[in-house]
Design brief:
This protein is mainly alpha-helical and about 100 residues long. The chain is rod-shaped.
């Protein structure tokens, strides 16, 4: 082989090695970028999930608070009705006892 042919082969091999090294470097950079993008997406999803959970908790607390208020009002109403019934019965019981004593 001639010296020119050997130089040409050597240059081609060197170019191939450089191209392979550049391709490896590019692929590593692409993988790194993909991993960063993936981590960013994961973080964004985590933040969205936290916001959604906080919103759901607030809504649930509001609903529970309303239910508690409704139950409290219902309980107060039931208490008033029961008190009225007891007072009527107490009056009836008093009348009955007095009638039994008087009529003996």
């Amino acid at each position: 082989m001639s010296l020119d042919a050997l130089k040409s082969i050597t240059q081609a091999e060197e170019s191939a090695r450089k191209a392979i090294a550049a391709a490896i470097q590019d692929s590593r950079a692409a993988v790194d970028e993909a991993e960063r993008a993936g981590q960013d997406l994961i973080e964004k999803a985590r933040l969205q999930a936290e916001e959604e959970a906080a919103r759901l908790i607030r809504e649930t607390e509001q609903e529970v608070s309303k239910e508690i208020e409704d139950l409290a009002r219902t309980t107060v109403n039931k208490k008033a009705i029961m008190r009225s019934d007891v007072e009527k019965r107490l009056d009836q019981a008093s009348d009955y006892i007095v009638g039994r004593i008087v009529n003996g």
